[in-house]
Amino acid sequence: EEALQPFHDQIDQLSHFIKEAKTECYYPSEHNLTRDESAAIYIYTMKWANNCLYDHLQEAWKTEDRATMKRWFKYLRLFKSALDKLPHSKRKIWQGVPFDETFIEKLNSKSSSTLYTSMGSCLPSSNEIKDYLQNNFSNKIILIGYESVNGKSIADYTANSRHEYVISPSTKIAKADCNVIDATDSVIYHLKGQN
């Protein structure tokens, strides 16, 4: 509750959903997450109305502005503390976004330097993401496959039934490959973790 205090005026029904997250989250757990840590993951995966917590966090994250993100620091510390207690996964995981020329330019302009992950959930199947995005947004999408990033499975802690993974926001990654797929001109990026 304290970690999300700055957002009560911004996010509709936040108090209600914080209570729901604290009641419904997976606690106690075999990974020794506190109730607040488990609830931090749970509320991150909850969807409500047009602007849930995830949407607001994504908006702030995309600004790449430290001052904008500062209000999120308490919540992100709690979220990262929860992720740190979960086991690493070595499997390739996927993230997808509707096609965005600016995002493509950003990935391409940093091709020789280290990139940092976008804040978002990933799934083990690229087809599941592709189907969802093409059915709900447009046929033209960007798929991102992550290898060697030590993603954390949050499946037991989510508000839905998907087997989601999260990559720690501090993970360093670099572009390994890029290709355009099928008639929709969708783009697939393959990114790899760096030590």
UniProtKB/TrEMBL annotation:
Designated name of the protein: NAD(P)(+)--arginine ADP-ribosyltransferase
Superkingdom of origin: Eukaryota
